[in-house]
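Protein modeling request. Please complete all fields; requests missing the sequence field cannot be processed.
Requester role: graduate student
Desired output: 3D structure, token encoding
Chains: 1
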Amino acid sequence: MSRPDLIIVGLGPAGLDRLATRALGLLDESDRTVIVRTLQHPAAAELAQRRPVVSCDDIYDAAGSFNEVYLAIADRVIAALATGPVAYAVPGSAAVGERAVAEIRRRVGDGAAVFPGESFLDLLYLQTGIDPISSGVKVVDGRDLPDPLIFDTPLVITQVDRPEVLADVAAQLGRVLEDTTPVVFCDRLGDGDEVVATVPLAELSGRAVGPRTSLLVDSEPVGWHGLVITNRILRRECPWDRKQTHHSLLSHLIEEAYETVETIRALPPEAPRGKPDYVAYAEVEEELGDLLLQVVFHATLAREVGAFDVEEVAEMIRRKLVNRHPHVFGDVVAEDAPTVISNWEMIKGEEKSRHSLMDDIPVAMPAIIRADKMQRRAKSVGFDWDEVAPVFAKVLEEVDELAAVAADTATGSIAADASSGAFAELGDLLFAVVNLARHLEVDPELALAGAGDRFADRFRLMEEQAAVAGRSLGDHTLEEFDALWERAKSTRSS
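Delivered output (494 residues):
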């Protein structure tokens, strides 16, 4: 084997005694410049006592980000090649978590001989009894945790090298794990003073950390995967869950949807902008969980007959979102929300082979929501007023037409069936009001719900006022009702 100009050496998890003889011999060559990523490692410190080395610790001190560090290290190694053979030595394995190594190899191609070295992961697996293949271990960077953090397999968290990193990791784990969840704390693996200790999550942030600190979390599946697994267990073992069908669950789906709407309505109107109301958000969180269970439950039932599974549901909507947002994931230009909506409806129509924009709007929708959706579909092709004034005029026109029908009908004899003129004219008026709400950018369903809330609140106050006076509300005259109402209205003006 010819003598390589550039070697990249993994120093292993501890001292030089664990290093391969061939790699150590190359590091000892007197005419080879040796650059170590950091001296904060036993093998690197020992190497510095054997021969001159160049440390990159100064780059860490000067750089503004880790990406700048990796690029600067690569620059230093490549520049050193101009004066002779070079060795770049890193803690652990050169093939694990070494972004500067990847950058150097990208620049030199096949011009580097790599001696990967022993990874700390090998020792961690040995110390904890974890088989990375059978258990499907996931390894993540404590300084850049994935979001969301998935707990479906044992999780190794590396580079927990500073107190603030440990505090952030503990906080992220605490979002879904119980305080009593055991966490394996590993430090200085391979040294005589190595630490392998199991501590409860609640005590994790108080531990002292260093450049070689890692964590192992091997909990039961929690979060999304935990919900899916729990639902499948209940489906097999709970008598109530076993008897459910798609149709028997339908009322629960509708109920949970309405309860979720109720908690969202309790949020400040500008949410998530403005100061968050965490008490209200706690209610939203709970109801969203109940609603999510319904989605997972229906997917579990579909899985039993081989129709689809919950992951396929998630993937289907992911693909749909990508396809319907070509201005984000493609080369289509959409600089405002109306253009986005127009593109969305066009793409959706192509997906569903829609013959009319009025197709696939569920008849079972609440009438106000259905009217709003129909109008928005029409707007996507330009069938709409540009200003709000003619919309007001249309509402007044419908009021006049309803009034005319009512005036032409004998008092008390207006039919309530769909064949009556009043029925049609009232429908037209409501449809026009929905159109007005849309132009005012007010959700008509929420606006009507708010009006109902205000009426109920004021009516209860009228009842209280009557009770204080020792009278039944039904004993009041119309004039007294008006006085009670105005008093309640001024008291509860919001």
